[in-house]
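debug: dumping io for the single-chain case to check the tokenizer round-trip. Nothing else runs in this session.
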Amino acid sequence: MLLAARQDADEPAEAEQAEAELVSEWQGRLRRLLAAEPELAAELRRILADDLGPEPPGSGRDEPSVTVSVRALDSSRVYVAGRDQHITEEGDR
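debug: decoded output
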């Protein structure tokens, strides 16, 4: 559904709107499901953790979150690291 919405969008803003609508729709579906059957909450958490990867930021984990956006132009170089970075170049100076 999400991929189809993105492909059908003519502009990035349109794609973002379609994505936001799908997120809202699925949040509502999950809320209604959990309201009707609260015992499914543990199983849903397990599925999300096992099949979809780590929990999103703000979900209670103590792990830091980093978001990086990089744009290189012309012949520039960009070096990005989530932690320590050691760069050694010989002959470029």
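debug: round-trip ok. The chain has a mean pLDDT of 79.
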